[in-house]
Amino acid sequence: MRVYKVLPKNDHDLCHPEDWEGFNNAIADRSGSIDWRPFRVRLVHSSEGRKLRRSDAPWWGSHVLILRPKAVELLGPYLREHGQLLSLECDEDVLQAFKASRVVDALSTTDSDVARFSDGSISIVWRHVFKPEALLGADVFKLPNFNVSPIFATDPFVERWRSAGLEGVEFDEIWAGEVKH
Hints:
181 residues, alpha+beta, 3-stranded antiparallel β-sheet, 30% strand, globular
């Protein structure tokens, strides 16, 4: 099994929330105490003077996927098994945020190469090592070790995304290991 970080393709469009702090807090909330409201977002079609290509997942950050209707149509039922699809307000398109709800304690903090804050919490992971047994059934997940965890994906998610022919993100393999069933 392989684990991937989800990353933007540099030449594809972006999505920016007007209230980025409120949006990030709502996406990061694991307690269920923050009621979702459709945050207002805008699409960004150019960067540094160059036109960006249309993405099925306009990029905001590694902790959430912003999805256009094509991605929701092709992967919606599958995504709902692993998280929530949350409405956004956008003048240009119908967008939804995918909030991965599965939090898996799969990172081996003793074997990974991590930097820590002064309080001992993890600030960044330079090299990921995962606990293979924790990854069973974890197609798309977040880690509990972070306030705002990036989304991680395993082969089943990556294969579905690619076979759907969706554009705009890429998958950087960060770990490969054997999962014993």
